Amino acid sequence: MSVLETTRELLALDGGEKVISEPIPAFSGGPGADSIDDAEIAAITEVLRSKALFRHNPNSQVRAFERDACEVLGVQNGLMVNSGTSGLVCALFGLGIGPGDEVIVPAYTYIATAAAVVAVGAVPIIAEIDTSLGLDPVDVEQKITPRTKAIIPVYMQGVPGRIYDLLDVAKRHGLKVVEDCAQCIGGKYFGKMVGTLGDVGEWSFNYFKVLTCGEGGLVFTNDYEVFERACFASDPALPMWMKDQTGQTTWHTPPFSANCYRPSEIMGAMARVQLRKLEGILTHTRSLKAAFLEEIREGGTPRGFVLQHVDDPEGDCGVSAAIICHSSEMAKRYSEALRAEGLSCGTAHNAGFPDRHIYRYWDSVLEKASPHTTGYPWNDPHYLEQGGDVFYSPEMCPQSLDILNRALRFGFNMRMTTHHARLMARAITKVDRLLP
Ligand SMILES: *Cc1c(COP(=O)(O)O)cnc(C)c1O
After folding, report:
1. In this predicted structure, what is the pLDDT of residue 238?
2. pLDDT tens-digit profile of 399-426?
3. How many Cβ atoms are within 10 Å of 173's Cβ, its own excluded?
4. Is the model's pLDDT at 345 over the cut of 90?
5. Residue 206 CA: which ligand 1 atom is closest?
């Protein structure tokens, strides 16, 4: 056998040696869940022993968490709630958004973003994403009508999108901006914490997020009135509790009643511990993504794909990477070849199940399924009066479907080392080099 033959590189698909022979460590939840240790157990145990589980108490863990989070974020007001979705609902109530209003959401986000808009009686308008996998500022501007009140940019998989461009569109049209940072806790944009650049920000602490306390959320803002209204929206009895606790009797805006999204002290105690782990978590995930990107760069200019566009790589949480192939056909072939190399991935669009992160599968929204027989928010008189007539269809965002069809996504977790991240990238550069 000649030297040339023995060293000739073959795709694993063609019988060559796999790049990844040992499985890459996996974890079914998020980095926060994977980082749970005795500290969370001790904090929760202490709350249980105290038998003080209600947030309105003099030693409130929830209140302490809100203060800690505000310090990390560099923001004035924070309210903990029982989920990220509740946080978005409170943010929208905080801004006074409701019947007759339209709110622009991206075609690629968890359905909760659109659901929160429906929950306050407003109409979600679905806009295209671009190669940042976040809102496309050009399409956002085209979707603005006289009824548009706000935009909700979403930073999927820890990557802050085109925030300055979106803020610019919002400013020119007098719109509010709610930053959905459910998947981007600790993400930064040119040095500033995401969620603090628009009018209101939101975090989620469900099992899959950067930090978790089982379920939970945070809504935060520098605007005191928005905060106060978010508080009223989160707990109809809160004005009474605040009066008792702090002696506060005057409000900037009149209290109103809505929902109860109050978190327990168990959640607050766990969230505090998790927040202290944020820097460590992000240092690790960012090191994984940096190693991955370095290895991709060393592979030279890719033939068949471009990397997801990231405005500010330093602010990226580093929990994921995406490549966008030149065609959906190539994405399928790359995905097959990568699986043979030991790297499992699907195209974002054809992962084999209806992905609720793609608007096409938000059946309840596309069908305008109302919580009530009046058909609100779409048939709300305030909406109809203003000529509101949004049209939804599974094909309405072709640019987003095209990009998602061509995108392959890879996640980084706390169990991986930079060696694993490099192997993942090596599998990709090998497939890119050798796939005919
Ligand atoms: C997880 C998530 C939410 C909602 O969070 P929950 O805590 O599950 O209610 C909202 N938006 C996005 C983009 C999310 O990923």
Report:
1. 87
2. 999 999 999 999 999 999 999 999 999 9
3. 13
4. no
5. 7
Pocket of ligand 1 (CB under 6 A): 83-85, 109-110, 112-113, 154, 180, 182-183, 204, 206, 217
Buried b (16+ CB within 10 A) or exposed e, 179-206: bbbbbbbbbbbeeebbbbbbbbbbbbbb
Q: What is the pLDDT of residue 376?
A: 96
Q: Which two tokens stand for residue 64?
A: 């302490």
* Ligand 1 nearest atom to the CA of residue 217, by list position: 7
- Taking the centre of ligand 1 as the mean of its atom positions, its distance from the CA of residue 209, in whole angstroms, is 9
Instruction: Measure the CA–CA gap between 273 and 88, rounded to whole angstroms.
Output: 23
pLDDT at res. 398: 97
Token pair of 247 as six digits: 């002696």
Higher pLDDT, 344 or 359: 359
Residue nearest to ligand 1 atom 7, measured at CA: 84
Over range 286-309, report the average pLDDT.
97
Q: Residue 188 belongs to what H/E stretch?
A: strand 188-189
∠ CA 316-348-193, nearest 5°, is 20
- pLDDT score, position 250: 84
In the block, residue with structure tokens 């094909």: 395
Nearest residue by C-alpha to atom 6 in ligand 1: 84
Task: Work out the burial of residue 98: count CB atoms within 10 Å of its CB; fewer than 13 is exposed, 13-18 middle, 19 or more buried.
Answer: middle
